[in-house]
Amino acid sequence: MFRIAIKGILGRKARLILTSLAVILGTSFLAGTSVFSDTLTRTFDNLFSDVFKNVDAYVRSSQVIEADFGQEERQRIPLSLVDIVKTVPGVKNAVPDIQAFARIIGKDGKPIGSDGQGPPTFGTIGVEFEGALWTIADGEFPVGPTQVALDEASAKAGKYVLGDTVKVVAQSGSREFTLVGIASYGDVRSPGGATFALFDPATAADFLTKPGFIDAVLITGDGSVSDAKLAKAIQAALPTTDKTETLTGAEITLETQDQIGSALDFFGILLKTFSFIALGVGCFVIYNVFSISAAQRQRENALLRAIGASRSQVTRAMLIESLAVGVFGSMIGLVAGIGLSKGLSALLRALNIDIPSGGLVVTTSTVQQTVFVGTIVTVLSAILPALRAGKVPPLAAMRATALEVSEPGRKRLIGGLISIALGLAVIVMVIVGASNSYLGFGILLVFIGTIVLGPIIARPVALFLGRPAARFRGITGVMARQNSARNPKRTSRTASPVLIGVALVTAVTALAASIKGQIDDVFTQQFKGDYAISTNNRGFGGLSPSLATDIAQLPLVEGATGIGLVTAKLDGKGQYLTSIAPETIEGIWNIGLIDAAYSDLATDSIFISEKIAKKKSFTEGSTISAIFADGQSRTLTVSGIYINNEIGDYILNKGLIASTSVVTFDIGVYIKSRPGSDQKEVLSSLTAAVKKYGQGDLLTKQQYIDKQSGQVNQLLGLIYGLLMLSVIISIVGIIITLLLSVFERQRELALLRAVGMTRSQVRTTVRWESVITSLLGAVMGIVLGIGLGWVIVFALKDQGLTSFKLPVTPTIVIMIMSFIVGLFAAIYPAWRATRVNILDSLNTN
Amino acid sequence: MTPQTRTVAASTLSASKVYGSGDDAVYALNDVSVEFFAGEFTAIMGPSGSGKSTLMHCIAGLDELSSGSAIIDGTDLSTMKDKALTELRREKIGFVFQSFNLVPTLTADENIRLPLMLGNDKGNEEWIQKVISTVHLNDRLTHRPSELSGGQQQRVAVARALASEPRIIFADEPTGNLDSTTGAEILTFMRKAVDDLGQTIVMVTHDPVAASYADRIIFLADGKVVNEMTEPTAEKVLDLMKTIGH
């Protein structure tokens, strides 16, 4: 039987290629995303493992607060510890280290380096140290409060030469320095696209963080003791009151890599999710192809049965074929995926998410995973068709071709309806109050039910959708309509991938439309100012707190307030908190305080959102313990509860933050101009003030609201991009099915050609069948997608989403796109159909 | 009817069809010149491989000659491109094949009108109704091929061939897949189409009984016309076939 299977494969190369195509596409995305993630991780790993390559020990604070997304905030240590470390036996040299936010402003007044999610912009200490990778390529290391050195790439980008005055923005504001050195990092001009400004230790502490404090001490040993012993000795020598910890060079390198890894993990998971969706869509195509080919080989299989092959042998032959297709397809998919990962980088770059370029990393696990998953998925998809192939009665060999035309049965109807009913029940439970985590399960059940019902729905819907074609396209349209309805199982299997893709796109679009609508409403309602200064930096750097105070001084400005983010442990759990200045925020942001005023926010109190208050049953007067990065525990009293949590769920007084050693930035400055002032003048005075800091985008209220929506668009773009592959697989699915149908209908086509159907009429028939199939998937997908979107929006009502917005225009666009997809998918099959040899096809029995 | 008054509906002139070249060349048709007359029922007979199907295919515009010419209604087919040939088949030729004559997704009525609909032509309704009643299909028009018997399917095929009032109808073993009673029925309809409706039919067959329905029989062997017979009977045909070694 094995030999028969192999002969079967080789005998029909075209079929092998078509079946493999679905596997190739599915696995290529899996491999592509895997290679892409690995490459990204490796690039950053290299970058950061180099940092501590020559460091033998590393001293830092043991006080740390961890928040979501792997962000952490660590306390600083006194600069004076460096001198203590130097006295420890075995230490060759020790230098202070600071890695903080600093933005270099170019000669043209524009910041160097990418804004937002791109590589970071660092300020650091530059001193002569054999453990550091920084060396001075030109000039010297900076000494004193007015000197700076820049990395080579940044100096070049800013068109700076030695002796120039360089403006740098950091947490404490902006300052001007004299460029005294061009530094290079190992043998790289600029590591991973990051920018670096180097200062002497005291200046760095003063300008970048907090005078007298540093992030860490870098130590080299004299080689007399092991790194582990050295670290121990240093730790023992340090005063316990300073709460420090000492790591070996190897430990700190490993930890850094882990941190980078976990930050990239989120992205990797996103990519994986979409690649599995694509693979799932691919399953349908594989299943469909095997089903069709089993049907087309019915007589061949019946003959095998008639001459003595057992059921299981027929089934096994088909499974062996699927195994071969799986292995073959996955291996090509792997190669294609490596190419695809390059495309992904380009896609992300187009979306303004900059990633460093480097050699592609293809790990053994990527290879194993791709081939394994691809093969398993293929064989699984082939099981049902293979079992069906085995069930062919030997008598079918004598019968005229009875291709799969079995009417969908009762079992299918009942099964599908039960699945949908169960799914809806779960969704209703969630709506009534069950946990949102059941939502996915409910949605999945509805999807499965819809797909199970597909063959039953397909016929009437295809006939309905085919009406215009039949009406306006004459006999070719009539035949296209009939063809799309003649085998409802096949049509619905072909349309299912389209359905899934369209449903997801529609749901995401509906969700985005609702979020955007919400943003519009909320900001119009809550933001009472006229202008906003925003930054794309989140978590690392931001706007200098002095920007808001500077702007408030402007004559045409009635008020300006800055809002910042800070991490702290609240009742033991890391959280992002919003910091505000109660004295200036009044009249600019309306957060909907219930029975409280901004003035109630003292430096020992906290405001919490209504949502959190309900969830954790806090009331006014409750107390929360908070630990900031300085490690001290404070008890905060809830002094107000507010409704609109757009700016965050916890709000603190900036005065409280100032009393800790925590460095904070503002993420936004919000401005109200004096009533009646000329807006042009206001704008120009604001522009001048912002320019002085060289950072932040000045936006009008409307621009600010649009920008918030724009972020949704950016995410939407990314998701659309990732769903593209599912769409491509659906298109390929249609192409494959049409090709197999054309092959199956050769005699019919030959007959039509003989009695006078022109080639262009043949093409029209195939084309409209394709369009009807594609639209069938789209219509069902849109219905499902809108329902799905509504459910998600409903489930997110706790997150502040209140109204569902129907994405009317996108729905129309999706329909038009599906129409085009249908036309496009038909090109090759239609051409094949016109090439049918009339005489050969008519003469074969 | 005297030969002088007969009109030629289709003809070949030195028609040859060669497969392969040089020493391996096989002649399916070897210098065949033959005429088919309007208003007559002509049968082409011959043993397997005699070239009878090839001859029909070449005259009907389904296949190309290697040399010589095939002419229908005064037009030389060898000069025509695919599109023109397709239109010629649609408008001037009717076909009845041995099996698989009908499009399974279309009703009997739609199948009958298929060539007309493909040409965006309404056709002559009176004529179509006449054809339908001649082949006794009035109560089967809304059925699909899978709901019709083999004989009914062939009747639909005959009706389709007639529906567009073609210049000539080609039938390729139209009764080959039918039992003798049903076959006789179909042949009677074809005979009627010639006698009552004035149509021209060329039929390829190897069945002497079927051939005996024709006005004239052309015998082919090894790609050449070897004999001809008018007013045939099954017995006369059988006798002749023995002499040419069928």
Automatic annotation (TrEMBL), chain A:
Topology term for the membrane: Multi-pass membrane protein
GO CC annotations on file: plasma membrane
Main location: membrane
Pfam families referenced in this protein's UniProt entry, alphabetically: FtsX (PF02687), MacB_PCD (PF12704)
InterPro entries per record: ABC3_permease_C, MacB_PCD, Macrolide_Exporter_MacB
Spans through the membrane: 266-290, 319-340, 370-389, 413-432, 438-458, 495-515, 718-743, 771-796, 808-831
Ranges for domain ABC3 transporter permease C-terminal: 273-394, 723-838
Gene Ontology terms for molecular function: transmembrane transporter activity
Signal peptide: none
Protein family per UniProt: Belongs to the ABC-4 integral membrane protein family.
Protein name: Unannotated protein
Source species: freshwater metagenome
Automatic annotation (TrEMBL), chain B:
Key word Cell inner membrane present: no
Any one Gene Ontology cellular component term annotated for this protein: membrane protein complex
GO MF, any single term: transmembrane transporter activity
InterPro entries: AAA+_ATPase, ABC_transporter-like_ATP-bd, ABC_transporter-like_CS, ABC_transpr_LolD-like, MacB-like_ATP-bd, P-loop_NTPase
A Pfam family this chain is assigned to: ABC_tran
Keywords on record: ATP-binding, Nucleotide-binding, Transport
Domain ABC transporter span(s) in chain numbering: 13-246
Protein name: Unannotated protein
Taxonomic placement: unclassified sequences, metagenomes, ecological metagenomes
